[in-house]
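[job 0412] stage=fold_complex status=start
inputs:
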Amino acid sequence: MSVPALRLAIALLTILPAMAAPEPAQLTPNQVAQAIKTDTLTIPTPGELFAALAKPGKIDWPSQYRGPMPMTYRNRAQIALNLGGLIADGFIAVEAQDAQQVKNIGGDIIKMAKALGVSENILSRGNSINEFAENNDWGVLQEELEATQNEVKASMQSHRDQDLVILVSLGGWIRGTQVVSDAILKNFDGNTAKVLRQPALVNFIQLKVDGISPELRNEPLVKDVTSQLAVIQKLVSLPSGNAPTLDDVRKINEAVTKLMGEIQNKGDVK
Amino acid sequence: MISRFLFLIAFLFALCLGSAGAQTDQEVEARKTALDVAGAFTNDGFKLRDGHWAGAVKPGDHALIAVNLYAGNHYWFSAGANETAKKIGVDVYDENGRQLVAENYNAGEKAAAGFSPVTSGQYFISLNLLEGAASSLCLVYSYK
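[job 0412] stage=fold_complex status=done
writing structure:
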């Protein structure tokens, strides 16, 4: 091979790999900052979280059930937060493939939604949930639960209760995180624990809560939730790629369990 | 089959309620196309999220939507456009804005990207209008 030909070959060897594997595109910080965030796409459902948890092995879902919830709340923020938690309970019952539990929770969801004055259309969702549970249509039930949640939120928006919408999502996220962190604690695995890393999600929820009306934001329960959410945000802001330790998971579980307890049991908050 | 029927019912119901906000005819068409793409994944055991995003995109431009995903799940992001779009694409970016390798499907006004995150957290889905006049695009996603 002549020298010029060799030089050409070396040049090609240098250039070709670069041509074959182009640098991946990179978004600018401005593009990232301006990305669209919506309640219905940016916030994952408890079902998505539970699906990720269920991959590595069998989860004892019935051990995550909780006792019946009071249906006597009078504070709208408390009802909205507990409604979100109940919907997460519905996803747990679906994972457990427990038709009776799904029907019980479906009934409670409808009662609580009605307490908020949402549309009568929600009643038909209750009937669908019962029907799918009786037919063991578990995959469809997950979608039906999310559709029910979205319908409740849509009804809230049309009744100018949009400030309550984020509280429903927040209640669901807290209950989902409580269940998942508890299940991980019972059978610790660092890789599975990675599902608990959600800094941007909590930041998004926090920003939405900050944007609600001052009157609602100053209610004692909402104030408590907001201040504790800031603590939880730090706990779930785990470094990318690193698996959380058992201690990290325990701290997250303690924080969300405390918060869930307040949401469920705090006395007359207004 | 039942799932696809449910999508249709949910879709029509959302239209009646106006729950997705005031949608244009083009956005409705785009959503119908996106749901059509997502239906194929549902048959493969993927569960479809009830939410969606729809909006107008200029030629050569994109819409960027933030999602929060869980390590261990497999996701398909399905997009559709109204008929003025000739070619669209879907790309996935990580929380630092770096494009990720994804399984891709492209067919004119339909496109999808499949992705399994190894890290839980925020990702960005880019809906790209590659060819055609200004169009409405819609994104839905499925997981399993």
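[job 0412] summary: Confidence is low (pLDDT under 50) at residues 1-20 of chain B.
[job 0412] exit 0
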